[in-house]
TrEMBL record, chain B:
<dbReference type="GO" id="GO:0052689">
    <property type="term" value="F:carboxylic ester hydrolase activity"/>
</dbReference>
<dbReference type="InterPro" id="IPR039069">
    <property type="entry name" value="CE7"/>
</dbReference>
<feature type="active site" description="Nucleophile">
    <location>
        <position position="171"/>
    </location>
</feature>
<dbReference type="InterPro" id="IPR029058">
    <property type="entry name" value="AB_hydrolase_fold"/>
</dbReference>
<dbReference type="GO" id="GO:0005976">
    <property type="term" value="P:polysaccharide metabolic process"/>
</dbReference>
<protein>
    <submittedName>
        <fullName>Acetylxylan esterase</fullName>
    </submittedName>
</protein>
<feature type="domain" description="Acetyl xylan esterase">
    <location>
        <begin position="7"/>
        <end position="292"/>
    </location>
</feature>
<dbReference type="Pfam" id="PF05448">
    <property type="entry name" value="AXE1"/>
</dbReference>
<feature type="active site" description="Charge relay system">
    <location>
        <position position="257"/>
    </location>
</feature>
<feature type="binding site">
    <location>
        <position position="88"/>
    </location>
    <ligand>
        <name>substrate</name>
    </ligand>
</feature>
<feature type="active site" description="Charge relay system">
    <location>
        <position position="287"/>
    </location>
</feature>
<dbReference type="InterPro" id="IPR008391">
    <property type="entry name" value="AXE1_dom"/>
</dbReference>
Length: 303, 310
């Protein structure tokens, strides 16, 4: 692993301080088309560092709360989903869900429209201005907004996503559980060298074109490596590892598992998004005391 | 264990009597529009082994469509080619992996996708129901044509062997593979994974997950439009295109697919006319449709039909 920069905590404290300058100023608008008899969907707009105006989908179950919540951190794609593709819509009957589009993603793409592939290496030689610094701040803003919702049961707050889930849980208190599928910021340069698949192939493309920038890239990425954030994650974490022998297998992620401060469960991918998806849905429900998980699974997953 | 899937599931939508006439009309309109392809080298994404280009071409309604094109630097004068079609929410990938296997490869970004959204951008969710009550302006009229015109882009490449064209994709890419194989006789082999856009009206009853859930949202908000929605979708249902497919084709589905119900995959497969067709149904798999196990089968299939014997 690259050395954790001596100013790692300063870098993120400055990011936090810059975010604190701007209040979230939420605008909340009902979206009747996506609201059902069991949940109401809202478009939420929030301000993040910059200032930059973001967009998110907030779903609140019908009925009297408080409800557990799932915060879906920004994905590495242009599209913002209400809930992840393939998730039973009935998930929204039991959980508050919040899905945020960070800067660059659709609905948050003015003035910055990110490219996919492209975002991972955009401005990567300058740690101070690397777009992911703002994206992390955006994700933190999303969680901090969720925590203000009166319908929320603050003892059951799940943060779910890729690397950003762990980073957000590290930087913003309030997550009780985190489900993370590392993809971008774990030993990035070393793992990129072992694959030709995007998104890590973006790193290979960049370093092939600009070999003289290797050290600057390494320096920037050192502020984002999950192992540096791990000691700050106190939430119970579910790490979704790749299959044994794959790039991000449990073996590869073992140092991350060891560095996490809170309880950790590691799941080896079974190379089936049915089996892996069922595992994480059941895990989340169990953590939240939801006993009839069958009722909120996709039809073809139910027993 | 999940309940078994009904392999004999009967899809409800009927093929409209004027289905062929409708699509002949759309093709006629498209044929009048010059393709005007532009290939822009992308040195950042290129390597010693693979050349990468950003591609742009014109499609129906004069919409400028983007794509990625990859070709092996070491290739024969006439190289087989793959058209790669994208999933619903995915950003179209750079198809280097196909170039690494010896193909020229075009990955299309139909209208509304990233890099093709300047003139048409209904967004996600919304694409699936955009103008859904009018087949003449429904989003997928142009979207399908954008994918089909990818074949014309490949044919415009002098290094591409016009006799060795294949098409593949999964999910929405699987649905686009079906319609492309149906409508473009130049396609010599097709591999469709977890095909979406097949059995729309069946799917919205069989599952309640996005993206199909967009249609349920729409009908709930506009109940009086249900018949119009059904009428439009019958013209776009991959199952109704399937009897035009005559090339060799393989289809893979997951029996626990939470996005594209496997019942619709069975119904689609029955309707495919080709005598050279095979279905791979993967138990214990969802929308991945057994991707890891199936990938070598796809490789061998295209190698047999496109790479070998030349």
């Amino acid at each position: 692993m690259a050395q954790i920069p001596s100013d790692f905590h300063v870098y993120w404290q400055q990011t936090h301080d810059a975010l604190a300058v701007y209040p979230a100023c939420p605008e909340v608008e009902v979206l009747p088309m996506r609201s059902t008899e069991f949940a109401t969907l809202y478009r939420v707009r929030l301000t993040s560092v910059g200032p930059y105006r973001l967009s998110a989908y907030l779903s609140i179950p019908v009925g009297s709360g408080p409800f557990p919540a799932i915060y879906y951190t920004p994905k590495y794609q242009s599209v913002l989903e209400i809930i992840p593709q393939g998730t039973a819509n009935l998930q929204r009957s039991r959980y508050i869900t919040l899905a945020l589009a960070s800067r660059g993603q659709r609905t948050s793409d003015t003035p910055y429209a990110a490219m996919f592939p492209g975002l991972l290496t955009d401005g990567i030689t300058q740690a101070a201005t690397y777009p992911f610094r703002g994206i992390v701040a955006d994700s933190v803003r999303g969680l901090s907004y969720l925590l203000t919702r009166p319908e929320l049961d603050a003892t059951r707050v799940l943060v779910v996503g890729n690397d950003l889930a762990l980073i957000t849980a590290a930087l913003q208190p309030g997550a009780t559980h985190v489900v993370s599928t590392p993809a971008l910021f774990y030993d990035t340069i070393a793992l990129a060298a072992q694959t030709t698949a995007y998104p890590l192939e973006e790193i290979n493309d960049y370093l092939r074109a600009f070999p003289a920038h290797t050290e600057a890239v390494r320096q920037t990425l050192s502020y984002y490596d999950l192992r540096a954030f791990a000691p700050r994650v106190t939430a119970h974490a579910l790490l979704m590892a790749g299959a044994p022998g794959s790039l991000l297998s449990a073996t590869t992620l073992a140092p991350l598992e060891a560095a996490l401060h809170g309880q950790v469960t590691m799941h080896d991918s079974e190379q089936s998004n049915y089996k892996d998806g069922l595992y994480s849905e059941q895990w989340m429900a169990a953590q939240c005391g939801i006993t009839d998980v069958q009722a909120i699974l996709p039809e073809h997953w139910r027993s | 264990m999940p309940k078994p899937v009904a392999e004999d599931y009967q899809s409800r939508p009927q093929k409209p009597d004027d289905f062929d006439a409708f699509w002949e009309g759309v093709q006629h309109q498209a044929a009048a529009i010059p393709l005007e392809p532009a290939f822009v080298p992308d040195p950042l994404r290129s390597s010693a082994e693979i050349e990468v280009f950003q591609v742009f071409y014109t499609s129906l309604d004069q919409v400028r469509v983007a794509a990625w094109y990859c070709r092996p630097t070491r290739r024969s004068a006439r190289t087989p080619a793959i058209l790669y079609t994208p999933g619903y929410q995915m950003d179209p990938p750079i198809p280097k992996e196909w170039a690494a296997k010896g193909y020229c490869a075009l990955s299309v970004a139909p209208r509304g996708k990233l890099r093709s959204m300047q003139q048409f951008n209904p967004g996600y969710p919304n694409l699936l129901t955009y103008n859904i009550t009018d087949r003449h302006t429904y989003a997928y009229r142009g979207f399908y044509m954008d994918a089909w015109r990818g074949i014309d882009v490949l044919l415009a490449c002098p290094e591409v062997d016009p006799e060795r064209l294949g098409v593949t994709g999964t999910s929405q890419g699987g649905g686009l593979t079906i319609t492309t194989a149906a409508m473009r006789s130049e396609v010599r082999a097709a591999a469709a994974g977890a095909p979406y856009l097949c059995g729309y009206m069946d799917a919205i009853a069989l599952t309640h997950t996005y993206p199909y859930e967009e249609i349920n949202d729409y009908i709930r908000a506009h109940p009086a439009s249900r018949q119009a929605v059904e009428s439009t979708l019958a013209y776009f249902d991959g199952i109704n295109f399937a009897d035009r497919i005559t090339c060799p084709i393989i289809v893979n589905i997951g029996l626990q697919d939470n996005v594209c119900p496997p019942e619709t995959g069975y119904a689609l497969f029955r309707n495919i006319r080709s005598a050279d067709k095979r279905l791979y149904a993967y138990d214990g798999h969802g929308h991945d449709a057994g991707r890891v196990r199936h990938a070598p089968i796809v490789d061998r299939f295209f190698a047999q039909h496109l790479l070998s014997g030349r």
